[in-house]
Amino acid sequence: MPQRNCHDASRNSRYVALLAAGFLALGLWQHLYFSYSVDQLTFFKNAFDEDTYLLHPFGPGGIRPDRLLSGTLVSGLLWLLQGSHGLALAVLDTFFPPLIFLAAYFVGAAIFREIKARCLFAILLALAPDLFSLGNAASYPGPFPTLDQFRALFGKTLVPPIETSFLALYRSPEPQISYAIVFCQIGLLLRFIFNEARPAALGTILGLAVSQALTMICYLIVAYPLLAFEGFAAFLLVLSGRVRKAVILGFLLTISIPAIYASVRLGSGGPTTGATMLFQSRMPEITVGVLSAAMLALLSGIMLLQRKSDLRLIAAFALAIVPLAIMNQQIVTGWMISGRDWERFINLSFVVVSGGILLSLVNRRRDWQGPVTGAAIIITLVFSTLSSMRTYNLWLADNLKSVAIARAIEAADTLGRDTLLVFEEPEYAPLVSLRTRRSYRPLLDYTEVFKNPIPATPEFKPTPLSASLFEYWRQTNVSPATAQEILQREALQKSGYYSGFIFNICEYWSPCTDGRNVQTEKIFRALPSVITSYEKSSRDSGAGEIPKATAGRHFAHVLSKSPVPSGAFAKIGEGRAGPFIAGIWVQN
Predict the structure, then answer these.
(1) What is the reported pTM?
(2) Is pLDDT of 2 > 70?
(3) What DSSP string runs through 130-167?
């Protein structure tokens, strides 16, 4: 019997190791294949904001409490790799997907006994935001309904803008790092809650406390819903007579207060900046995660009324309540922040864990359990492979173009250190900076919008950000009339690039408030003042009054769409990648 048990354990370990290796390959192949396609060892950006995260590990606007863990790990990784941001990104994509899977398996091991059930659960948990979210363009669509169909059913106002174009476990370093930590903490909490044999040992409590401390310096979108789960579970444990367990969960919440306070301060902004993510609303939000959680909460709640002391039902109900609470607490409080990232990154993970617990309570016939579970594993692995390929195709053009621009910058031997680069497509500036060995400064950098947030003032007031934008428009020959058209178009779209240098981000960018607090009318009223300020800036520059930010600087134009600039310009560098050609031009 012991030999057989050892054999089974060894075989089970091979299954887990094989799947972990598959997740490693899932994260690594894009970097290797892209490097092969461009004949250069380089990285592949496959998610929003990765370049900004690596350039500013602790946050572009200063040290954020929910970036402490990822910032420390990234900073240490950059030190080990001698400042190679691209290699750091490839390392994160290689090792964190399998770590996420193993952490998810740790959760599954607390719920299921069968190895196949644990493996299937771990895959579903690791891929939950991508498998079930209707807004992910990277997910292989299959027979599922679209987000537009979902909005047609419930109304556009009630469905937050959850559109994205990458697998969640690809986004480095967050939420990658947070998934690995938070899933481990969920696994520890479930073991603690499920254990009825004896009171929790001191070592268990200390382990939970250490893991909780790490969780509180993780990405708040992923980590903080865990606090809601602990609070709900503690309340239910008191009702069931498990006061000791409830006290320990209360202790975990207590040690989290400093991090909660720091994040509330971050989210509410301050009176000097006027920048805040809080806004008033009492409208509910409806998503796949919310509806799924509501069904699970109803099912587990009915079962809990019949079996009030069942610890598994307590955990399942508390987990199901979390997406409902964080997405719709504004119905009671009247205040909310954007719920789109809850849905993008964590709601469906809580749904999977809650559903897994309920499924573990069902007696199943073992003769069909194995084949069905095995088939489900194969289907989800095929889904993840196809979705990974879709992610690659969605981000390929941006990566190729950034390589072409970086090669052009490297080839520009006469490019001086005091030269400001005027990107024809300024959104590529952070990504290109990761690919070049040369340090440079772009004239327009969207990262500055987060470093120096524009206050929500009653009317437009010139700032260093607006001065940079005006000089950029002047360098690119954008007339005041064209500038007004650009800002009007972005105001109507409730999104855009250039408005961030003029207006408070939550006033013009719809996703910041889930489309519920966009100040379009205010922006239109301010446009005449903006254009007047731009005209004055252009006249002053023409008269020799150079803005302080650009005084004593030379300009080089980075062209990635237009082949030749107008006027007397000379090309000093060129780069190619795939079908894209980029050039560096300076005025004679």
Answers:
(1) 0.93
(2) no
(3) HHH-TTBTTS--TTPPPHHHHHHHH-GGGS----B-S-
